[in-house]
Amino acid sequence: MEEKPRTVAFALAIVLVVATTMEMSLASGAQGFCNMTRDELMACKPSISTAKPVEKPADACCTALSHADLPCLCAYKNSGMLPYLGIDPNLAMQLPAKCSVPAPAQC
């Protein structure tokens, strides 16, 4: 069962990459990717970054992850671009467990 949280975290990292590399015209509070705003996505980035990652995810990150559309995040799970974009896949895989967020059954 360890694989499901890792898949969701990996997918979350992909969404972070998309959010940071695309110009998004999101108003504050508007939903962007997988029921998460750009600000919510960015709240998770420090915990999965290859450059001086923080050990404990921000409360805002965990709150956002708890209401995110996790099956949507799972759709991004097979991308291999994370290391090239400054995202540590191992750290990304740990994010759901660190936030105590269960993974969806179909991920």
TrEMBL record:
<protein>
    <submittedName>
        <fullName>Lipid-transfer protein DIR1</fullName>
    </submittedName>
</protein>
<feature type="signal peptide">
    <location>
        <begin position="1"/>
        <end position="27"/>
    </location>
</feature>
<dbReference type="GO" id="GO:0009627">
    <property type="term" value="P:systemic acquired resistance"/>
</dbReference>
<dbReference type="Pfam" id="PF14368">
    <property type="entry name" value="LTP_2"/>
</dbReference>
<dbReference type="InterPro" id="IPR036312">
    <property type="entry name" value="Bifun_inhib/LTP/seed_sf"/>
</dbReference>
<keyword id="KW-0732">Signal</keyword>
<feature type="domain" description="Bifunctional inhibitor/plant lipid transfer protein/seed storage helical">
    <location>
        <begin position="34"/>
        <end position="107"/>
    </location>
</feature>
<dbReference type="InterPro" id="IPR044741">
    <property type="entry name" value="NsLTP-like"/>
</dbReference>
<dbReference type="InterPro" id="IPR039265">
    <property type="entry name" value="DIR1-like"/>
</dbReference>
<dbReference type="InterPro" id="IPR016140">
    <property type="entry name" value="Bifunc_inhib/LTP/seed_store"/>
</dbReference>
<dbReference type="GO" id="GO:0005504">
    <property type="term" value="F:fatty acid binding"/>
</dbReference>
